Amino acid sequence: MPQSELITILTVFVGLVAISQLVQMAALVLLQRRAKALQEQVAAFTPRAEQLLKTAQETLEQSRRQIAEVTTRASAILDSTRTQIQCVESLLQDVSGRARSQMDRAELVLDDTLNRVQEAVTLVHRGLTRPLREIQGVSAGIRAAVGHLLKGGRPSVAQATQDEEMFI
Fold first, then answer.
1. Which of 86, 83, 104 is nearest to 94 (CA)?
2. Helix, strand or coil, per DSSP, at residue 22
3. How far, in Å, CA of 49 to CA of 59, rounded?
């Protein structure tokens, strides 16, 4: 390749490099302007963000205090509830024991009353049935005597034979 062509090619490349350097410089200047604008916006926003952060921290501290207070109250209520439940359980056990005792006593009284009523009924039954049997026996004897007397005293031979056959 001739030297003049080589120089031309090199000149073109050097020109292209120079143009690319100018384009890069323009991009960097635009980038710097944009960074300054962004920095100004961030600087304007920073006090508001700090104020918001401060308010959030205060709210968080207040919430922590309230949560601690609520937790303390809940613990107190829970302890009180446990105490009340224990009292109710002991009262329920006491009432249950007393009720069982009273039921046992009532059952004993009822059994005793039923036994006494049974004995009274038995005594009344014996007291009434024995005299009734005696009266019935006496009346049967009187009936037999009256019947015997009405028939004329002694039974006939046929009647006596029949009575003996029935007896055998």
1. 86
2. helix
3. 15
For residues 84 and 76, give the distance between their C-alpha atoms in angstroms, rounded to a whole number: 12
Residue 155 burial (CB count, 10 A): 13
Q: What is the pLDDT along the chain (168 residues), one digit of tens a residue?
A: 688 888 999 999 999 999 999 999 999 999 999 999 999 988 888 888 899 999 999 999 999 999 999 999 999 999 999 999 999 999 999 999 999 999 999 999 999 999 999 998 888 888 888 888 888 888 888 888 888 777 766 656 666 666 566 666
| Residues 6+ away with beta carbon under 8 Å from 163 | 155
> pTM, whole model, 2 decimals?
0.41
Six-digit token string for 24:
């890069």
CA 161, CA 158: separation in Å to the nearest integer? 5
Token representation of residue 130:
């024995």
Instruction: Give phi and psi for 104, each to the nearest 5.
Output: -65, -45
Residue with tokens 């003996």: 164
Q: What whole-number distance in Å separates Cα of residue 131 and Cα of residue 138?
A: 10
Distance CA 97, CA 91 (A): 10
